[in-house]
Amino acid sequence: MKVTHLYHSGCLVELEEHLLLFDYYQGQLNLNHNKPLYVFVSHRHYDHYNPNIFKIHHPQITYILSNTLRHKYDAYYVDIHQTYQIDDLSISTLLSTDEGCAFLVHVENQTIYHAGDLHWWHWEGEPEQDNIYQKQTYLQEIYSIKEPVDLACVVVDIRQEKDYLLGLNAFLRHVPTKYILPIHYFGHYETTKLLLQEHLDNPYHAQILPVTHQNQTFEILV
After folding, report:
1. pLDDT score at 222
2. How far apart are CA 105 and CA 171, in angstroms?
3. Which of 7, 32, 29 is nearest to 19 (CA)?
4. Which residue in 29, 117, 121, 193 has a CA-CA distance of 20 to 30 Å to 58?
5. What pLDDT, on the 0 to 100 scale, is given for residue 26?
6. Helices (H), the chain
7. What are residue 218's DSSP bridge partners?
8. Taking Cα atoms as reference points, which of 198, 133, 122 lies closest to residue 164?
């Protein structure tokens, strides 16, 4: 599996027979035109959705969009807590704690998770009931993942300061995972250095991919 961190939460996953593009915002797309391309958008926020995805030149492209986007384009529009069979992809959706959905994709005997904005958004100064909702909803959705995950794209947002690892640690505790691709960087790549210094609650010994720059590619064995 080849995984490219494009920018922020955008990533491109290249498998033996498929290309999966998640939440493209900006970055350089190097696409293999011999493999079908599936473009996922978790919600309509500007940092997860760039309308230029509909100008991508590729001979075989399928769009899988949260139904928070207008039903304007030729695409599959997906709702939360549903499972869809699209070609040979099985796609389940989770409820985001912000807007839209997260994706759990089963393809080529591999499982790939992309959080979108599903995260434990704990903010100092916010009403306590809001922070309680964030915790309860995030854990409810993560607990619903019942199978091991090969690659998980999980939010790590340094703007939360001391609470930025709440979501990642909960995910690591409850979902057996081989590789974690941290997302939601906003270009703050110093986050990676902090991550490597943290004592994570990681009983399944998931490997954290050390993202340090835009358009960075990792070759991983799953």
Report:
1. 84
2. 17
3. 32
4. 117
5. 94
6. 128-143, 166-174, 190-197
7. 3
8. 122
